[in-house]
Design brief:
Distance between the termini: 72 Å
Number of strands: 21
Helix content: 10-25%
Strand content: 35-45%
CATH superfamily: Mitochondrial biogenesis AIM24
Order of helices and strands: EEEEEHEEEEEEHEEEEEEHEEHEEH
Shape: globular
CATH architecture: 4-Layer Sandwich
CATH topology: Double-stranded beta-helix
Oligomer: single chain
Number of domains: 1
Number of helices: 5
Amino acid sequence: MNNHEIDFKIYGDDMQFVEVELDPEETVIAEAGSLMMMEDGIKMETIFGDGASSSGLMGKLFSAGKRILTGESLFMTTFTNVDQGKRHVSFASPYPGKIIPMDLSELGGKIVCQKDAFLAAAKGVSVGVEFQRKIGAGFFGGEGFIMQKLEGDGMAFVHAGGTIHKKELAPGELLRVDTGCLVAMTKGVDYDIEFVKGIKTALFGGEGLFFATLRGPGTVWVQSLPFSRLASRVFAAMPVAGGSRDEGSIVRGVFDLFNGD
């Protein structure tokens, strides 16, 4: 095993956090800003990239540069138990949803996930960039041409919105998913973007112009509430000058028009 073997426990239902138990000298890496709490005896350090890249300045700069492509910070944070006994550190999801524990040793050593899904992992897990092979996914996919890849043989934690559904795809089995609802997939899944057929459906269906096509074999994780969908609903409900965005705003506007307001 190249990765640190960590124990963990997930707390909560819709606003979850994961508590990682570290033996002496064990380390966990996490996205900057994901820390919830940590016990005394844990040393926190900010590093370039994921800490799993080759040694030397150029290796660290290359690892950090890959993270820029996925829209993440240049830096990650490591938490190391420098005490004699077991210590605990906890990480929280940034929005309502679930935390998915993934043992990479049981998933072929690699998963591909949306670029903001990674939360934390055992030291030794590499957080890199996955370029989709097909140009359609690059230009039109809701998750874009670039996704994250997590490689190694340790434990990683991925977060997603709403309810999470894990689906096993048989060889050749096809699944169509809203591009924003795709969370992660194992390396054997073939991924592409498909245009919604029918001009009326595309323009007025309310489901977007494109969806992801996933073909097995492999495992796929799907979320019921992408953060982008949640954010758009919150924005639509935000107050506007002179009123608010609610169900009666259009009727109120017509009323005000006829009353000279």
